[in-house]
Amino acid sequence: MNVLVIGRGGREHALAWKLKQDGHHVFVAPGNDFMEGMTCASIHETDVEALAHFAEENEIEWTIVGPESSLMAGVVDTFRDKGLNIFGPTKAAALLEGSKAFAKEVMMEAGIPTAAYEAFTDAASALAYIEKLGAPLVVKADGLAAGKGVTVAFTVEEAEAAVRDIFTTDKFGQQSQVVIEEFLDGEEFSLMAFVSGERVIPMITSQDHKRAYDGDGGPNTGGMGAYSPMPHLSKDVYEEAVETVLKPLAQTMVKRGTPFEGFLYAGLILTANGPKVIEFNARFGDPETEVILPNLKSPLLDVIEAVVRQESYSVDWIDGYTMGVVIAAEGYPDRPITGQVLSGFESLPKDVLVFHAGTTKKGDQVVGSGGRLLVVTATKPTLLEAKTAVYAAISQLDLPETFHRTDIGSRAFTQII
Ligand code: AMP
Ligand code: GLY
Description:
The chain is α+β, with helices and mostly antiparallel strands. It has helices at 10-21, 48-57, 68-72, 75-81, 91-98, 100-110, 123-133, 156-168, 235-255, 288-292, 300-308, 383-396, 410-416, and strands at residues 2-7, 25-30, 39-40, 62-65, 86-87, 117-120, 137-141, 150-153, 178-182, 187-196, 199-208, 211-213, 217-220, 225-228, 261-271, 274-281, 321-329, 341-342, 352-356, 359-362, 365-368, 372-380, 402-403. The chain has 13 helices and 23 strands. The protein binds adenosine monophosphate (AMP) and glycine.
């Protein structure tokens, strides 16, 4: 089939890689310089008319959307109007990610366990609420801030400073609303699913590492590394999350007249009272995609076509683990340095995959051009072997002016050993 992937990062590189493995002719818009064997089209991911035109011209049979910016620009609505096959939520359904306040409203309606919260449109009421609640608590800028609009505050002063930041600076764009929520204590995990209307086909679990530095220190980032599946999460907890979060969400979106179709991402914390939601994303997670897709044995489009037809599908996963470590530019997330030359990729073993995100090709050189530069992954029968292989691969590379976490997966090891 002719398949189009929209986006340019590591997640889209992994999607395109999987679709190519499955034997398709893969187009990517705009793609990046490292998508070998795929056809890149330089169309911006939010230029929805041009994307639809491209899909028509090139007889694209399926379009898969990577980034939230395309969804919020209405790419799915436009493709559907033109009768083009696309897997992703409409603009109305993507608001689950686009607005935290909206997501909370839907969760309340669906009875989905989540942190208690209040939304405020002015700083004074938000500050009064913080006084009343006390720390710890979490302050979130409403709208898209790429995982960076969240402050986990352990003191009232930190929470107050975060609120002032949101309303008085334009650090997070024009924000008119802030969500203040209860701090949830427990193991964090990601659970994603293929969803169409009420039909939910869950994927295996994965765990991201959001903080910049080892030991979960430093600022929140878009994600510094991940692995899948989580060996220390029980089947019972997994099933509870599917039954109490994913399915009621899908049903409620249908009831509200804005059915969800696409990859649904639930960010969860396993509290003493069971799994609770901290966020929904209306798309595949990044870097979770890079560690989940190497584990997926079933052809991706077979699962997508089954869910869209409202059929059940027994997804085939490998009996093993993938770990992915993000190589970030020095200075990320605040002021990433660009222009570093990365090398040594030719000598990596076959089962190590490198997905590119913030890099460009200059002649034969791989040059840094963003914050998160690449994700190095390894797939092995055990998580420990995957970890050993991925860090061995990284040590073979020459990665000046970059940093990465050296403790990806450590929570799994401390809990099984
Ligand atoms: P978010 O962008 O909502 O995923 O938040 C970024 C990170 O902040 C999450 O990955 C969590 O580690 C943390 N976080 C967000 N909300 C909460 C909460 N209610 N309790 C504890 N940690 C949270
Ligand atoms: N890894 C979290 C996200 O994609 O937002």
